[in-house]
Structures are given as C-alpha cells and as structure tokens.
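Backbones bend. We report:
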Amino acid sequence: MSSLFTRTVLRLSAAVLASSIGLPAQAQVQAGPGAWSSNQTWAADTVNGGNLTGYFYWPATQPVLNGKRALVLVLHGCAQTAAGDVINGSDGGFNWKGAADQYGAVILAPNATGNVYGSHCWDYASTRHNRSTGHDGVLLDLVRRFTADARYAIDPDQVYVAGLSSGGGETMALACLAPDVFAGAGINAGPPPGTTTAQISYVPAGFTAATAAGNCRTLAGSSAASFSTQIASVIWGTGDYTVSQQYGPMDALALRQVYGGSFTQGSAFAVPTGGNGIPFTDANGKLRTTEIAVSGMGHAWPAGSGGQATNFVDATHVNYPSYLMAFWTTNNLRAAGTPGAPGTPGVQPPAGLAVTATTTSSVALAWNGADGATGYFVYRNGSRVNASPVTATNFTDAGLAANTSYSYRVSSNGGAGESALSDAVTATTTASGWTCSTTTASNYAHVQAGRAHASGGYALANGSNQNMGLNNTFYTSTLAQTASGYYVVGSCP
C-alpha cells in the first residue's frame, strides 16, 4: 500500500468520523479582499533609518495545503520599489497576484529601508546579519506580525522568501539566518553570504560553495537543524552580465551542503518558457533544490506573461511566481499533509495515470477522471507544466530532450482548490540518433568555437552553464556535447 494511499484512507476516515459527529472536516479560512493593500507602515529601522513600509496581498481564494495559507516575502532589487515594480498598481509588476490567487497565499511586498548602497538595496552584503536589527530584523518582525495574526490563517510551516539581485542575496541571507522560519527560498541572481557589493559581477578568488556554506551555517547558529527540512530554487538569466551567473549554481550547491547528506542530480527539465532546470533530490528521494537558467534573459525578475517588461522585470520568459508556488507547495517538508488532501477544500487526485506514447521530444499521458474535477494540472519532475488546468483526461508534454527520463504526476482542480498529486509514472523519450562527442581544448578555444560562453572572466559550458574555470588559453577542459547546443564538463555518459 503506497504512502499516498495510506494517507488518503486515514484522512477519508477522519472526514467520515467528523461528519458522523457533526463536525466540519475542514473549516474555511477568512477570505481576503483579493487586492493589494494600501501602503502600510510596519516598523522602524534604527540601523538604516526610516520605517519599513510596503504592501500585502490577501487573496479571496482558499488555501490548497492543510486549510492554511502560505506566506511569501518578496524582495525587490536595487533601484526598484515595491509600489513601482513588485506590484505596480494592480500587479503588473513581479506578477505575484495570479499565483497568490491560485494557491490562496498571502504575499508581502516591503520597501527596503534607508538608502543602502545608494540605490535602495537590501543589505545582503552586511557583515552584521542578525535576527533583531537592520533589514534582517525588520523583515523577520514583519513575518512574525502576519503569522501571529489569526485573520490571515498563516501556517508557520508554509513561510517562504524570494527576491531579485540584492533581494536575492537577502533571500539567501534570511534562508541561512532563519531556516526555522523559512521552509523554502527562491533566489534570483543573488550573491551568497560573504561576498561584497564590489564582487557582484565575479566570484572572488578562493570563494567556493563551501565558503558560502560555511558562512550560511554561521548565520544559522543554533537554528541549523532546521536546514534538514528547507528547500530552495535558484534562477538566473543566461544574458545576465550584472550578477555573475556562477553565483546561481554556487548558491544551490552551498545550500545542499548545509542541508547535509547525499544528493542525486536528476534529468534536466524544461521550464516554460525558455528555462532549463536541474533538480537535485536527497537520499530520501525528496526534491530539495532546483537550478534554472533562463535562456536569453538578462538581469531581471522572471515575471512571465502578465508582468511588467521594464526596470529589471522580464515578462517574456518564465513565470517564476507560478513555478515557485508549485515547487514549494508540492515539495514542502514541514507542512503535515498534501495539497487538497481529503478533509481540505479540493477534490481527489486522479487515478490510473499512464504513459500512452513517447517521441524524441514529447510524452503523452492519460488518466481516469476524478469526481468533482473541473480540470487537471500536470507536474513534471515536481514542477507544474500547464499554467491553466486542462479539461481533458489526457495531455501531451512537448519540447522535451531526447532519450531522457521524466517523472509525472497529475492533480485535480475543482471546488475550492487543488487536490493532492497522483501516484507518479516515469516516461523516457526516444533516442534522436544524436551521438555524444567530446572535445578537449583550452577554455578560450571552447568559447571561441561556441561550445561555451564567457562570464565574469570564467568560461561556462553552453546549455549546462557548468563552470570550467578561467576563460584563457592556460585552462583546458573536456566538454561532452550531449544534445544540440548542450555541453557538460567531462566525458559522454
């Protein structure tokens, strides 16, 4: 008997028992206005000066996990503001409203206090990170205010943080400083703890993921045990020449090191539109980090369609809020339940998920309809594929890599929310006839030949973005071309 089926039986039994004695299986939480608040003043910042101000979004929809709301702290980048960029009126900015409505989550959008680094940045490079003062202190106080207010029905096990640039760096700093508070993080082009503002475009000599991990553990102090249940996503653009692209995979590796244990790198997956992700699972098979390189995106927040397309916000590529909410909700290791499980608003997950056909670039799926479902969401490698639910009981996932294995699960959508995920099936696309080949040359020659690209003085393999070392003729690397335009360091698999 699968663990998912066992949990379903237990929750159904609880729901039946509750009904038999006249108790509600799951009370509805208070609906919000479904609009961004007016500008709020939350707390004084005695270190940087001024008050912490900003906005919050309280959805009218119900939450999808355990009948409690998630809380997401969203941090803008330098030269941005909450009003002008994160929400931009009715939410034409970072594009969080749609994800908040879909998952019933509360969103916090504060403004950086003071004028740190001369561009209203978050103080990610502080050498005095602590939980009581400065940006760290006022942000943690803000989270406490909302989790303590019963009106919002916030689940302390569903508190997350995400941000761009200095906000991305502050996101990682907070994830390290307070792993007991943040169950997950979404780091967008954020330098790791221990780097300075002068080092945003390059990784300093001798600074490695182990260095960042050591700094992270120091920040956590006595809260380090909570790293065992934290998850993180890291994202950057392949056209970002403001913050070194090397910091993306370095951030993720540093977090895996503080999470502890062994990790397995999964097959690369496509993120609509224009992103390529790499998942890492722990020894228990739990998805803990993902690394997403967004093809062609510069230094920007990936808002996707519906977001603004100006001032370091990109509306033409990945909808990162949608991705993050799916990633966090599906893989949360702290909330004692699953999305839309019996007894919470939602419907039952579909049964009978099966692979019906595969090609070199697609997988066709089919499943049995679920009672009460008005549509279905498909998840590939733990991430949602379709932004809107499909009404049919079949789906074809296209744009995949040849000869690659993918894991799929499906959820039902209907009533007040989304169901739990179905049992998983695995599909492998057919081989394309592509023959892997290797080339050994200087890093400079690889870049000149189009097998790699330069960033911050280093050479990065095209496709995988793996760091090959300095971009010059004295460093030699072997690159394996595993697909068209995709190279990895080392030999063919």
